[in-house]
Amino acid sequence: MRALCVVFAVTLMAVFAAQISVNAQRAPAASNRQIKVKSEPSATVWLNGVSFGRTDKEGVLEIKNAPAGSYTIKVRAAGFKEFTKPLLPAQKGLVEIALVKTTDEAELAFQEAERLAYSDRERSAEAYNKAIRLRPNYVDAYIGLARVLSEAQDIEGAATAIRSARKLKPGNAEASAVEGRIYKDSGEEAKAIAAFKRAITEGRGFQPEAYAGLGLLYKEKAEGSGGSGDIENEEINYTEAAKNLRSCLKQLSGAPDAIVIYQLLGLVYERQKKHAEAIAVYEEFLRFFPNSAEATAVRSFIVQLKKDQLPQN
Hints:
The chain is an alpha+beta fold. 57% of the residues lie in helices and 12% in strands.
């Protein structure tokens, strides 16, 4: 049943790299609010800094669980100038966003770097560096460069890039979250925890990437302490992992990146023998993502957990 746990943990590192950015003033709340974004084809759409996916070939993206309240929508498409605007609490239904072509070489280089980030890290890093040469104060390019270098195990280069981003824009929550990831990858747990917590403070409480980072860090600490026979610390770390993963889920508000977090949180509850809590998490996952590729496996988890709850003869 738990054969997928390693895949979940590996996939979460992709969540880190997916730039769950944090430009919002406050956390979104789950709702039944639905909006339909109409823009350019293959445009990425963010709500409160959280990616909700790409528009289809007609330029449409339907979001069935948009955050409640006021939030910011950001749309980016290759070859076009990035567009951001606020949406009011009562606004729902069709949201049309007309993008304008860009000739800004720095922005075009940044877009190329983003496109290559998962397929060719070396070329992606070159494109980020080009964007930085063209626009030396390009904070997003420094953060993107840090992510790519971190994925390529160039920890020193990633740390240098993120220091440049923080120097240009002190108090940037996303930069602090990426810094936490870099410290975690280099085995500096205390510094990682401090950076993740600083990111949450800088984001005024809203920083799903930092919460995800803390959740995974404490989960790994729990697995390490359990292996050493330290049951008390194992439970403490699993409790911290669950708390942070739950905070992450609340802020992701049904965004696609939540798929991995739900499964990790369910696994943490299973490790704690909290079967009812794990079942509740998996059932919530199925309400948000009933047709996902992982849905069949999650349904089987629920069946097995319910069997485990039955009295043993």
